[in-house]
Amino acid sequence: MEPLRIAHTPAVTVYEVTEALHAVRARHPELATDVNQRYPFEMTEQLLRGEIDIGLCREMRPEQGLIRTELGSHRLSIAVARDHRLAERESVTLGDLAGEQIIVWGYPERSGYTDFLLQICRDAGFEPRWQRNPIQGTPPVTAVLGSAAVAFVTDPPGVAAGGRVRVLELQPVISAALHAITAQHVVSPMRDLFLKAVVPEPGAGTPAS
What is the pTM of this model? Predict the structure, then answer.
């Protein structure tokens, strides 16, 4: 049996991918997988060419011919370097982030996930100051290393990066959806098994228009 080829963007952590795979393998232990990280544009191209079966992402806008299915969500937290002024806090609110530099991974209006994160700040009543992470492709929680900025992450509260990063609980609870992008024209029984095992509610996804 050929392995199910899965890609994920840097916004989806390897732990979250593993969590999904364990949910699938609990029901289909025979399913083999091949997992790699891809940038959104690479994922789109490879899905359309049939080189991968599933792309895992957050708020990525599917191109024509692709379908986006929501698999669930993960709670957002805030990552800061251990010497940041907020590092000793157990939790923060969005209001605490007003005036902070916020690290994002894509440019506004070109990244659905960046737009989602910046809109959260605007909904809280402030215009966010943002900067794009200069080290692309690395785990989101490490983006604040050597920086006075903060970052939205889906890692649980606690210490990370060998104690050099603190992850703070964000109040109130805000979650970021986990999406699967698939090719509308491709028939894949293994892909369908994966989606049925992970999707909380039955659904076929929404075709791109």
Answer: 0.90
